[in-house]
């Protein structure tokens, strides 16, 4: 009697796209996918960081290219996907935050956060999925959500609104795309230490409040997300769609 065989975690022969890939979680996602064998396209608005990231991946023997794209320019997004073969993996990572108490949020703040975190994410995923459908690619959409898409938080009204929206969007995407063999999932991290978030943790009272909620007792690192990204991109997650992989050190368990 033969034993069942573990599905492959490798991504050889596949093409992957990561938005917001210049630093932090996006760069880690690109590195993880390349280390698993994918040919990765790193996307951001400015060239410098993504070109450096792609060069670093190639220096380790991976396959990577940089492509300048403002995901807020929906015409440019459509043209970007029309000009390339379909990707097998799309990591929808570009996002922003403007932490303020609800009474200080302006319309400009609202538009900045919701336009990038929801509107741009929606249409990047839409055009990525349409390309997959056009070419018969059974792909994986991975949306970078947050634990704040599952709970609330002080000074996070806009961010929570955007990340809860991503969770609903993700489930509907999964239902629409399942007949085409395209999976859609979110990853929901806790506070991850990155160049963008590090200055916030210099406030000891804020750091203490965060660590009190993370039951494993430490801030997340980008490496904590790399396995989750690779897993959801791979055949090992072939029956997983419409759900959220929460990487939060126990924050939402309480």
List the helices and strands and how they pair.
Layout: E1 15-19, H1 24-35, E2 39-44, H2 47-59, E3 63-68, H3 74-82, E4 89-92, H4 107-135, E5 140-144, H5 157-177, E6 183-189, H6 204-213, H7 223-233, E7 244-247
Helix pairs in contact: 1-2, 1-7, 3-4, 4-5
Strand order of the largest sheet: 3-2-1-4-5-6-7
Number of strands: 7
Query: Beta-strand percentage?
Result: 5-15%
Q: How far apart are the first and last residues' alpha carbons, in Å?
A: 44 Å
Morphology: globular
| Class from helix and strand fractions | alpha/beta
Radius of gyration: 18 Å
Structural overview:
The structure is a single chain. It contains seven helices and seven strands, in the order βαβαβαβαβαβααβ. It has helices spanning 24-35, 47-59, 74-82, 107-135, 157-177, 204-213, 223-233; strands spanning 15-19, 39-44, 63-68, 89-92, 140-144, 183-189, 244-247. The longest helix is centred in the middle third of the chain and has 29 residues, at 107-135. It has 254 residues and is an alpha/beta fold.
